[in-house]
Specification:
homodimer; 165 residues; mainly alpha; Arc Repressor Mutant, subunit A; three-stranded antiparallel β-sheet; DNA-binding
Chain lengths: 165, 165
Amino acid sequence: MNGDLDHVGRLQAQWARERPDLDTSAMGIIGRLHRLADALHTELRPVFEQAGLSDGDFDVLAALRRAGSPFALTPGQLAETTMITSGTVTKRVDRLAAAGLVTRERVEHDGRVRRIALTEPGRALVDEVVGIHFANEERLLAGFSDLERTRLTHLLTQWTTSLGV
Amino acid sequence: MNGDLDHVGRLQAQWARERPDLDTSAMGIIGRLHRLADALHTELRPVFEQAGLSDGDFDVLAALRRAGSPFALTPGQLAETTMITSGTVTKRVDRLAAAGLVTRERVEHDGRVRRIALTEPGRALVDEVVGIHFANEERLLAGFSDLERTRLTHLLTQWTTSLGV
DNA sequence: GGAATATATCTTCCTCGGCAGATATTGTCT
DNA sequence: AGACAATATCTGCCGAGGAAGATATATTCC
């Protein structure tokens, strides 16, 4: 029994038995969304590991690459666009600089600010990895038709917008 | 410009400018799903913190509660149902036992096995918190109509099933 | 019964990320 | 110019979780 349910479906059935007074329907969406995030993360991470990067470090490289030539941002800008704290920026940049993928320089007109810039090997690496990464994402969506993808994109965008993220 | 786009929409626009050779459409789904997971986590966590629990610790209490009377599982079962490693189980149970919410006992017929059981205060706490938690989840879905919720549930279930999670 | 193997849990070590405060620099106001 | 506030980044500490190995117990095979 319950063999035709996915994991979240089984959780809902258990809660329905133990707490029939509660409405578990939201879990059907939010629980599955979290499991998908975990599963997708597990599927996506190996591409970064193959390149010797953590996914957090890739985020920083990607932010610099997306910014366009000359591929440089301040730690504050990196913290904002990647939604991490300044302390985490420092540590990620430490690792990337040690690997020779970025440089950290002072800027002349404001001594408080640093300029984190992709090195040429860093730019080459992120350009290579991002291609593999996007193809990998495409693979994980292969089960959906174009119409289903459109509907899913619309529903998720509606949700991010309503939550303001 | 780009003021009418959400965060992921801006990322896609940046990538389209920098790497027009790549197909970024998958990011429209996977990127938003990850941002939603983060945002939902942020919204859900305070309920657990209010009860003095981390969300990880709540997972363990919830697994015990869902199991039904007498609300007891082995560390191995907890690791399996909550999808964490055995080392993480040990630490979470350590914390919960120190808080008096669970007990950790030997079982008579197999000396390798332990039996993690909710105490009565533990059962009372999880029963209270789970009600608040489900209502909180419901709140985060308030922007969707019943039809949209049904469609979203179906699409996510299709996806979890195809990924085997 | 004893050795080898299997099982279940715990321990140790490591990385990662966040938070709070420290430091350095710039801007403002008098 | 000097004092004070604002800004930008870095440092030190902490907790969470994973991986790999250690420990304890049980089972199997001879």
